[in-house]
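User: Please fill in residues for this 620-position structure.
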């Protein structure tokens, strides 16, 4: 079976468990490495549409005659089209249920793996996923029989008593046009495809793999909080324990490129008494003399974290991290206690492959950006690693629902918590948006429950994840409570092709005029008096080349407009800006780089208003 897929795999899959070669690469869509054996299950799966949603009632998981095949990963829309004989993605139905199935051979274990177990991880799949092993339904490590969400990974441990020499894996995926689920800019009942709303792309969208893991281990997620003044790094670790008892967590920090035999620059042990189940623990390590991470100097270190049992058995994970501090102080954003102007660009990955997304990241760096706003979408987690290496600040957003209800808020919160738990390792991630332009919070100006939910999540993020800045609702309708803005940044979306109108809008913004500046009032709730107490960001502007915005059509005129508009931004008390956007996406034809090749259509360095030389793009 050929399981190689250019979207998510850096190596060709095999039907045997493989041992990663040295130096360790990262062929799996996750940010944390585990030094173990794995089997990538990508490739051809049996496939069937369940148009009447009868598969569960008819026990398809116990045995079903599949007439089609489909390549995993890939969207349900593509697989629907193939099943119906179409050449392009199929139109979305109100509700789609699809079943996938394949076999895998039980791998042999060596002596070192006698205390290990098998688990299966889905890089991303959804929105609603159920999994069966040999006809028996599985539950995720978190105890879910049905996993909800489509932007983050989830894992099943495989019970020994269910395993056979050859095993059958069955997956049911269901999704709808429900506006209460997190969708980002994919179409729904509320927002139909066209203009800024894109075709639905869901289902089996990221790799799935089988791997051998220790019964008692650290999970593949690490949170990093650094306070640069004291050279202390706080690591948030998650333990998965099947055998309660005494354990030791050992933390070792190395120079990133240091050979495996080198001595750590910092190390410490932390004894713990751990119960059965899953638990989180913060440990703190001093890293004296550590260099800070920034876009100009993306200094990274290697973390080796081990869980050691009473017999001395060591279960280890590896991650890269950097020390940095981000703050909003008065009019400026401070990175490592230095005011830093954010030269940003809006990035919508759409259906880009992993390799295309890599090219996009290099191209955005070449444009002179130090910030990329990943617009209400999920990306392959390895992209965060790439941003760490390149020195690109990332602004991450929760894919929004399209209606404002108690259920949509519950779904939004669940998606946020899933995303942030898996992204808190990276120094590149500095800003989170809860909502964008009221999508999924359309009643923010009139509904106190909607505002209260956003305020509660803002406070939650402040307390639990102090390493990030948080924006409540990007673009306008920021929330004021007793005159205090519940957002670390005051952001505005300003679109005009006219330079004089642009100057007028920027003057209104910097003078603190909350109404008549953006499309809607900048603040809702209680009165808010700007007085330069929070950084101002123009977090969307431009659109030059998109006919509906009236922008220029040729690249030279567009570049000249960008220079003129950027000059006006820098002449005012504005902390950063985000040009819209990096690539063309469906009907939005306003990109500055080619979607497939990453080639720029405007001069390199165009968006760099900091006048810092741009590093050369790596050749490999």
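Assistant: Residues filled in for all 620 positions:
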């Amino acid at each position: 079976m050929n399981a190689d897929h250019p979207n998510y795999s850096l190596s060709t899959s095999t039907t045997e468990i493989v041992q990663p070669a040295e130096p360790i690469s990262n062929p799996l869509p996750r940010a944390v490495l585990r030094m173990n054996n794995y089997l990538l299950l990508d490739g051809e799966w049996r496939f069937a549409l369940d148009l009447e949603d009868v598969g569960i009632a008819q026990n398809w998981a116990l045995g079903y005659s599949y007439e089609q095949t489909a390549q995993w990963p890939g969207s349900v829309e593509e697989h629907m089209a193939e099943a119906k004989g179409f050449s392009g993605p199929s139109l979305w139905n109100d509700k789609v249920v699809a079943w996938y199935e394949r076999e895998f051979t039980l791998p042999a274990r060596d002596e070192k793996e006698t205390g290990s177990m098998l688990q299966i991880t889905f890089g991303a799949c959804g929105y609603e996923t159920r999994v069966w092993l040999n006809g028996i339904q599985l539950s995720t490590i978190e105890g879910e029989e049905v996993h909800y969400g489509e932007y983050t990974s989830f894992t099943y441990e495989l019970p020994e008593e269910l395993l056979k020499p050859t095993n059958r894996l069955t997956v049911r995926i269901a999704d709808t046009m429900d506006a209460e689920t997190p969708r980002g800019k994919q179409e729904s009942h509320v927002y139909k495809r066209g203009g800024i709303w894109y075709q639905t792309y869901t289902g089996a969208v990221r790799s799935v793999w089988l791997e051998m893991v220790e019964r008692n281990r650290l999970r593949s997620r690490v949170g990093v909080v650094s306070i640069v003044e004291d050279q202390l790094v706080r690591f948030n670790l998650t333990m998965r324990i099947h055998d309660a008892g005494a354990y030791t967590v050992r933390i070792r920090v190395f120079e990133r490129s240091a050979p495996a035999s080198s001595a750590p620059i910092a190390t410490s042990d932390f004894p713990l008494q751990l119960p059965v189940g899953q638990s989180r623990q913060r440990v703190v390590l001093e890293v004296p003399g550590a260099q800070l991470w920034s876009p100009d100097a993306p200094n990274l270190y290697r973390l080796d974290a081990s869980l050691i049992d009473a017999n001395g058995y060591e279960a280890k994970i590896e991650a890269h991290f950097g020390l940095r501090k981000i703050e909003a102080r008065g009019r400026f954003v401070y990175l490592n206690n230095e005011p830093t102007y954010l030269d940003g660009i809006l990035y919508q990955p759409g259906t880009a492959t992993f390799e295309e997304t890599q090219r996009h990241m290099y191209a955005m760096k070449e444009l002179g950006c130090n910030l990329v706003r990943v617009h209400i979408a999920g990306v392959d987690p390895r992209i965060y690693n790439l941003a760490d290496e390149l020195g690109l600040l990332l602004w991450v957003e929760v894919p929004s629902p399209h209606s404002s209800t108690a259920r949509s808020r519950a779904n939004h919160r669940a998606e946020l918590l899933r995303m942030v738990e898996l992204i808190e390792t990276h120094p590149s991630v500095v800003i989170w948006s809860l909502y964008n332009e009221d999508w999924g919070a359309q009643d923010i100006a009139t509904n106190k429950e909607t505002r209260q939910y956003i305020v509660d999540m803002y406070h939650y993020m402040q307390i639990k994840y102090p390493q990030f800045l948080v924006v409540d609702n990007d673009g306008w309708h920021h929330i004021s409570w007793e005159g205090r803005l519940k957002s670390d940044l005051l952001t505005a979306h300003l679109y005009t092709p006219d330079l004089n109108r642009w100057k007028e809008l920027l003057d209104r913004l910097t003078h603190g005029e909350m109404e008549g500046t953006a499309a809607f009032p900048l603040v809702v709730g209680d009165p808010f008096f700007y007085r330069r107490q929070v950084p101002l960001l123009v977090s969307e502007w431009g659109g030059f080349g998109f006919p509906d915005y009236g922008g220029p059509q040729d690249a030279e005129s567009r570049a000249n407009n960008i220079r003129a508009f950027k000059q006006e931004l820098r002449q005012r008390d504005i902390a950063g800006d985000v040009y819209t956007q990096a690539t063309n996406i469906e009907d939005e034809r306003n990109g500055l780089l080619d979607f497939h090749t990453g080639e720029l259509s405007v001069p390199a360095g165009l968006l760099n208003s900091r006048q810092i030389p741009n590093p050369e793009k790596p050749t490999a």
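For context: The chain has three domains: 32-214, 217-322, 326-593.
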